[in-house]
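Quick illustration, no need to memorize.
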Amino acid sequence: MFDTTADLAAVRVRYDRATAHLDAPLAVVDLDAFEANAEDLVRRAAGKPIRVASKSVRCRALLERVLARDGFSGVMSYTLAESLWLARSGVTDVLLAYPSADRAAYAELASDPKLAASVTVMVDDVAQLALIDGARDGGTEEIRVCLELDTSLRLLGGRVRVGARRSPLHSPAQLAELARAVRRRPGFRLVGLMAYEGHIAGVGDAVPGAALRSRAVRLMQATARRELAARRAAAVRAVRAVAPDLEFVNGGGTGSVQHTAAEAAVTEIAAGSGLYVPRLFDNYRSFTGRPAALFAMPVVRRPGVGVVTVLGGGYPASGVAGKDRLPQPFLPQGLRYDAQEGPGEVQTPLLGQPADDLLIGDKVWFRHAKSGELCERFDRLHLIRGSRVEETVPTYRGEGQTFL
């Protein structure tokens, strides 16, 4: 992050200079910050390869930049159509992190040797295997399969659950049973195991002004890490007993990279949000990233003293609705939303003393809440190096790809 008000003022000057020839709305990625964040992820992974989560980046050019760096290997995708698109674009190792019901894409996967060799699909139910078989449409290629372990922490005999509702496979025995089902079924090959600990990797443990809550989160996460490390190791042993040639065990996330990397059972780490560092990733004790992706909106009105109105800006993030899901007015410092309006679909009033120094056409810089969702709003990213735009690249949307 930035240490002083002067640091932030200098950043604003740099961004304004770099984009002076461009009209807002626009989105940028600060390459110096992006690369520093990538280096920090690699440092925390301590020698284990990082599989970059595409949903947190959603820009093919930036995925290619990351994959060209030492310490990164493979992509974790979020839809089967996206997986095939990336594989056709030259990515040779794509792990689909979520089960799919895209029958047309499965038919394509099963009929193309190159795609079948490059893409691994996620399975946590024998019904998904049946769906894939029913969608083959004559395709005979072997489908690479990964199983997902439910990482949630269950307390009081299961009456209390902490963590996302993902896979139904919680115990090592359940994983082993499905592994045997995959091995028995022709046309499938079990190659991986995944366990994403979102309640550890995606929840900040040092929230300003919330000391008691932060301590409770730290206690929960410490408990969850111990429980999951033991259960994940047992699950890997159980699955390897069925499939000794298992290629990878994926775990982690931006907020837990160093903890997950310390587990001997894990062979690779997943991370993506730590490259852009959106505002939801500010409140961690374990790492400090630099905001790398931002968007700018133009001042279009000056309704009165201490108020400006910018175009658009109402880009709430997914998840449980709350203030933490809203974009944050970032530069100049000191602007805030009108409590009666908030960020709007077409216009957003902003309050605060800095408003009086802003002119019509000036840019206000915002940070979004969740990483790759920014790219669903913009068709291009301007990549800034120092005080200039080094390159302008399309987002997924800019390439005509809207997978979700």
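Residues 72 and 226 are 26 Å apart (CA to CA).
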